[in-house]
Amino acid sequence: MIEKKLYKKEGFEGQKAIVIPRKVLSSRCAKNEIISSLYITDIGYYPKAKFHYRTRHSGAEQHILIYCHDGCGKAIIKETEYSVEQGEFIIVPAKQSHTYHADENNPWTIYWVHFKGTAADAIVSFIKKEKKSFKGFMAFSQSPVNLFNEIYSQLERGYSNDNLIYANMSLWHFLVSVIYNNKLPGAAKRNEKDEIDKAIDFLAERLNQTLSLEDIAAAVNLSSSHFSYVFKRKTGFSPIDYFNHLKIQKACQYLLFTNLRIKEIGDKIGISDPYYFSRLFTKIMGMPPKEYKSKRHQ
């Protein structure tokens, strides 16, 4: 057993994670008739996560699925211990005490997602019934990984209605791939991008810059007024608000995975005023950056 002082929640080379703002969850997911039954709250990927460790004595507010793509680890749910090997997944039910950690000598590479919704309890119960355990095996296939990456990439592009619906409806597909792995077809090809998708790409590539509405509209050859109208109609946000969400999403990752100071993080996302950065972060994430960093999610 490795010494507890070496355990860590995160801090692994190549890792990535998204924690969806709780205001977005409450206003755009929990109240959306299409996705309120099942929606993602947190999602991430930890490669070769040596010394990864997490314990929650009172459990989590969401259900957690961890898919071990490589290496191995262990999980304890209540008083039952599970060894999790390559190709296996573990479901950690909401509000149940648990601990999980990577193996010391062969640390796991994991894809993980936290989810909730009105159907979430029934889905977890169904998986347990089908697998006769909270643990199951997935015959090797690249399709679940491709699907996970597709979900992640959609959320990485922000929290428009389209993106949230696409990602969360895809979560059903991902969970089906967990239960019926041998039936999962190859991932479908994406349709050609329209002006709004191109604008989001433009924004995502320039998070370290300050852009005006005119700058963004010009990048996709539309007038400012028309662009603003069609952008909000499709995403539910103004272009600048959307850009700010992308900036704060990137700031969350810097807070989670680096030791950069608040001023340094602000500079990296094009916000040189640390007071404005803190106000914007608090407005979007519901807490100031320092508090967010101290409450690191997994």
Structural write-up:
By secondary structure, this protein is of the alpha+beta class. It contains eleven helices and ten strands. It has helices at 22-29, 120-131, 143-156, 161-179, 195-204, 213-219, 224-235, 239-257, 262-268, 274-285, 289-294; strands spanning 16-19, 39-46, 53-56, 63-70, 73-77, 80-84, 88-92, 98-102, 109-116, 135-137. A six-stranded antiparallel beta sheet has the order 1-2-9-4-7-10. A four-stranded antiparallel beta sheet has the order 3-8-5-6, with no helix packed on it. The radius of gyration is 20 Å and the shape is globular. Residues 1-6 and 184-191 have low confidence and may be disordered.
Which residues form runs of ≥5 with pLDDT under 50?
1-6, 184-191
Count of structural domains: 2
Q: What's the average pLDDT?
A: 90
CATH classification class of the largest domain: Mainly Beta
Overall radius of gyration: 20 Å
Query: Could you say which structural class the secondary elements and strand pairing correspond to?
Result: alpha+beta
In what order do the strands lie side by side in the largest sheet?
1-2-9-4-7-10
How far apart the termini lie comes to 22 Å
Reading the helices and strands in chain order gives EHEEEEEEEEHEHHHHHHHHH
Strand count, sense and barrel status of the largest sheet are: 6 strands, antiparallel
Task: Tell me the CATH superfamily of the largest domain.
Answer: Jelly Rolls
CATH topology heading of the largest domain: Jelly Rolls
Counted by DSSP, the helix tally is: 11
* Apparent shape: globular
Strand content: 15-25%
Give the helix proportion (percent range).
40-55%
Q: Which CATH architecture of the largest domain is right? A: Sandwich
Number of strands: 10
